Please model this.
Amino acid sequence: MMRNIRLVAAAVAVTAAGLAADGLRAQAPADVQKAVDAAYAKFKDLKEGKNADYIPALAKVDPNLFGIAVLTADGKVYAAGDVKTEVSIQSISKVFTMSQVIQEQGLESIEKRIGVDATGARFNSIIAIEGVRTVVGTGAPEMNPLVNPGAISATSMVRGANADEVWRKIIGIHNDAAGRNLSVLQDVYKSESDTNQRNQAIGALMLAYGYIKDNWQQAVDLYTRQCSIGVNARDLAIMASTLAFNGKNPVTGKQVVDGPKVPGILAVMATAGLYDDSGKWLYHTGLPAKSGVGGGIIAVSPGKFGIAVVSPPLDDAGNSVRAQRAITEISNALGGNPLATAR
Ligand code: DON
Model:
């Protein structure tokens, strides 16, 4: 009996060691840095894509800016290129505002009010609102918090007695996920506020259809402000890794989102993180991710790493060209696809 227990214990130990070795092999520091450096060198001179210009301030950002950062479980950052220059976070903020709502009101709050289904349409599609809306309370809404109508509605759901209180919570979760105090890029905020009539129309429609309960103007303004938060590639990688490691920031050790809530957040990212190209992205990488028109993309390999790339030129769907290529390359090199068991 005793011998059997020892044999079983030994077998478990060998298996555990094997798994650990495998995990370590996939993420040994030299391997990670090599993969990051190789992707940087491969895509450094790639000139495809174009800066977003429907927000005038974004057209002025240096298109050559290119930074890659990866964070592994030990909180170590592996980087190449410019990981210090800030760009506006744009739609990546949608993940963290959604996380704030989920953290304070539970996973079901977002599912019930907004929905967690892909629209298959562009991020600011108004046809998508008409196509998938249901009257709230009479059916499951088929929207998601990562396209503008759902995102503006999610912003409206953050609780607070006034705009300042709501904003403190929104910037708070971004700060906690990044591990430092972030600030709004005022030129981007002003530029987007001057030109966001389409988002105002979306906000008004979402009030009319019951997704937003009141004060759609405040929701659109706070949404515009959250999109203008300044981040660099390093910040974004730390934010991604907070989601990769059960909602706990691996650099500061702060629990930002309850662990059991993270899979739901990642599921929405997998479904809708790269807008109408989300399926294509998942097909090639298996990674929950989120892009922003400022040129950033974050991606999450659960339990393995968080990665971010900043490079402003975008493709037709609004996703950074170099970021998509570099993340795919690095994740493949590190065995990051959570859907793949065979190497
Ligand atoms: O609502 C907008 O138009 C921007 N503030 C955010 C859009 C965005 O980043 C979509 N990204 N791919």
